[in-house]
């Protein structure tokens, strides 16, 4: 099942058509995505038999963030060894966990305002939590996952690395710095036994190309570690880390400039496209 967001309303996406969930269910499920996560098991059962006669065509460019208002957003740093190496930082052991504030979230297409001269790209697989999770064992973790989506952890490196010690969250939370999409895809739609490929292009130049088999800690282990400290709630997001190829890891470092177009793709989930504009641009 693929869950999308059109005009702020939850839709089932079937090919190039969309089904308004509130209308198709006769009001049994509301238009808000949070309503669906609160009754996720029931909603999944209903979605398999949803009426399709009211499906309408939609434009990819009109999709918004498939999880517009999560209660919590977790992000994991240095979860791919080659990325850790390119930054000169050590990885392994306990995951480096921070937050992207929810106000940074945006949809899979659009324009993003540059915060400064050191904005970097970071393609990530994002996990969406289905039900309340606390002290969850790794082997049970996928039962708590509603779905997967593509994400970008855009980062203002100057802000991220300022302070002693550096703190990550503010530099990663400017408006638009947390795009997700184009849809939430349930795990049954993806072969989890095969590593999922993640790619990022800047102006059609492939800059990141990795796969989830390169993760130091897989999804289940991340959920186990995080839920040992924090309660995870329905609709929460977990950005799971990035493969190598970021701008700060290059010699000399390379960052985004006005006019740059960033394209993000995760196989089985879909593609996002964002254009960066200078500060003050509308």
From TrEMBL:
Pfam families, per database record: FAA_hydrolase
Highest taxon listed in the record's lineage: Bacteria
Entry-linked InterPro entries: FAH, Fumarylacetoacetase-like_C, Fumarylacetoacetase_C_sf
SUPFAM superfamilies, per the entry: FAH (SSF56529)
An example Gene Ontology molecular-function term: hydrolase activity
Entry keywords, A to Z: Hydrolase, Metal-binding
Residues of the Fumarylacetoacetase-like C-terminal domain: 73-276
Family the UniProt entry places it in: Belongs to the FAH family.
Protein name: Fumarylacetoacetate hydrolase family protein
Originating species: Amycolatopsis speibonae
